[in-house]
Design goal:
Elements (H helix, E strand, L loop, with lengths): L7 H18 L14 E6 L7 E4 L4 E6 L15 E6 L7 E3 L10 E7 L7 E6 L7 E7 L5 E7 L7 E6 L5 E5 L4 H8 L4 H10 L7 E4 L4 E3 L7 E6 L5 E6 L6 E7 L6 E8 L3 E7 L5 E6 L2 H9 L7 E6 L9 E7 L7 E7 L2 E6 L4 E6 L17
Antiparallel strand pairs: 1-24, 2-3, 3-4, 4-5, 6-7, 7-8, 8-9, 10-11, 11-12, 12-13, 14-15, 15-16, 16-17, 18-19, 19-20, 20-21, 22-23, 23-24
């Protein structure tokens, strides 16, 4: 081969390898985004982003986390987070405070509602404050309907508690988000060596992705899950759903759950059409999944709220035929709502929250939710 000339097959091979690498590693990179929804949507303006939310099916009230986690040039970032309430029964729903008193230092990420057979309801909040000091905050409903703080739970296992689902008055599962690991480890340098060593010994030197708190202590469950970002439980409490974040994660996991011990046994890996985020289980035991069809654009939007990223909503129907269980209900390019991280329904209303947008999307679609099944009272998620 003459000097100065390269083999064209080498260049072609490198180009093909790069294309295959991007195709394999970055889900949805080449797939087109086709916006659709068989209904209408309106935006509810907020003063902060609602990364997670949960619906109380008994009364149509929506509880949402309220905090700006993603910076944006020219926008004041909220230094104090909270929990807000939206009443879907109102002619023009608007948010209002859900807590009896604001709790200093709140930076809420995940939220779960627990409804016991008797006694007041409880809200569980995964609170991402500062590394080594993350917590779960428990609030209990008062006579006037607001929620008052009753307990703070801290544990070295709660190293990045991005999502939570309550399964008892003090029992819960937490998903630790691997994406926040880098920030945590940089901030770890500011803590004493003794603190860091104590925490690492307590968690066995690992970064558990999925943790169960039994009311007294936290333990790692499902040890092979290291990139958990969403978690939900079926209404009978016997199935746990876990969403995984990151590249090559277009799936979520289902586990058989032992209600007595909290232990899990992997049942299935369910392929999806996007990378999942938060999960919600409705009154009919369907799982509603907010997902990211373009992982690269979502990664950029995580660092800058001015960047737009498509939002996708999927429904998983566990009792449907296997090839009909996953349905794409909603898709937009990021113009209507960007970086959608949570979706839930109440009757014919679909509610979508975002990591970066200061808005909720309220959508209405006749027939969106079929009549509720009859049966014994179930645990609420």
């Amino acid at each position: 081969m003459p000097r100065g000339k390269s083999d064209p097959f080498i260049g072609a091979g490198i180009g093909l390898s790069a294309i295959l690498f991007v195709w394999y590693v970055y889900p949805g990179f080449w797939a087109p985004v086709r916006p659709h929804f068989d209904g209408t949507c309106t935006a509810v303006p907020l003063a902060a982003a609602a990364e997670d939310l949960v619906v109380d099916p008994s009364n149509g009230l929506v509880y949402l986390t309220y905090y700006d986690r993603v910076p944006m040039a020219g926008r004041m970032r909220s230094s104090q987070g909270s929990v807000m309430l939206l009443d879907l029964n109102a002619a023009e729903p608007r948010v209002r405070a859900a807590l009896a008193t604001e709790r200093p230092g709140m930076a809420p990420s995940g939220i779960s509602l627990f409804t016991p057979a008797t006694g007041p309801k409880r809200l569980f909040i995964s609170n991402l404050t500062s590394p080594g000091r993350h917590s779960v905050e428990i609030f209990e409903q008062t006579a006037n309907g607001t929620f008052a703080h009753v307990e703070t739970i801290t544990d070295p296992m709660l190293w990045s508690p991005v999502a939570i689902v309550a399964v008892g008055p003090k029992q819960f599962y937490v998903a630790n988000d691997a994406w926040r690991r880098g920030n945590d480890e940089r901030a770890d340098d500011e803590r004493s060596r003794e603190e860091r060593q104590r925490d690492r010994r307590a968690r066995g030197g690992t970064r558990p992705g999925l943790v169960y708190f039994d009311g007294e202590r936290a333990t790692q469950v499902a040890p092979r899950v290291n990139e958990a970002i969403g978690v939900a439980v079926s209404r009978d409490g016997r199935t746990l759903y876990v969403a995984q974040s990151g590249v090559m994660s277009e799936r979520f996991l289902t586990y058989d759950r032992d209600p007595a011990s909290g232990q899990l046994t992997l049942r299935e890996r369910v392929p999806l059409l996007g990378v999942p985020h938060n999960l919600n289980v409705d009154a009919n035991d369907n799982v509603w999944i907010a997902a990211h069809p373009k992982w690269v654009s979502y990664s950029r939007a995580r660092a800058d709220a001015s960047k737009r990223s498509p939002t996708q909503v999927l429904k998983f129907s566990p009792h449907a035929a296997k090839d009909e269980r996953v349905t794409e209900i909603y898709m937009n390019r990021g113009d209507e709502i960007s970086t959608g991280t949570v979706a839930a329904i109440h009757k014919d209303r679909l509610i979508i929250g975002s990591l970066s947008d200061r808005k909720l999307l309220l959508c209405r679609q006749p027939g969106l939710s079929p009549p509720q099944f009859s049966g014994p009272e179930k645990e609420d998620t």
